[in-house]
Amino acid sequence: MDKEQRKKMVAHCLVDLGETVASWSAKNGLHQKIVTDLIDGKLKGTRGVSLATKRKMEETFGNLFDENETKQRNP
User: Fold this and answer.
1) I need a labelling partner for 10 at 20 to 30 A (CA). Which of 20, 39, 43, 47 fits?
2) 3-state secondary structure labels for all residues of the chain
3) Which pLDDT tens digit goes with each residue over 7-58?
């Protein structure tokens, strides 16, 4: 999924939830900057906080990212 598709999908889901990126991030204990960078494709989210954020986003919004990117390198 490319950046524009990801943005549209997240936007539609947030409208359905009655949330914004900022409110959804805060409600889920996530950093808004990391969430927006993942949506924009600026972070790969393969480790640490960005990986945990990516997984939480996919729980809420569905499969937003390439399946191989979500798995840890050394599980």
Assistant:
1) 47
2) CCHHHHHHHHHHHHHHHCCCHHHHHHHCCCCHHHHHHHHHCCCCCCCHHHHHHHHHHHHHHCCCCCHHHHCCCCC
3) 999 999 999 999 999 999 999 999 999 999 999 989 877 888 999 999 999 9
Q: Which residue has the tokens 């390198």?
A: 73
Is the pLDDT at 74 greater than 80? The verdict is: no
Please give the Cα distance from 30 to 17 (Å, whole number). Answer: 17
Give every CB contact of residue 70 below 8 A, 6+ residues apart in sequence: 45, 51, 54, 55, 58
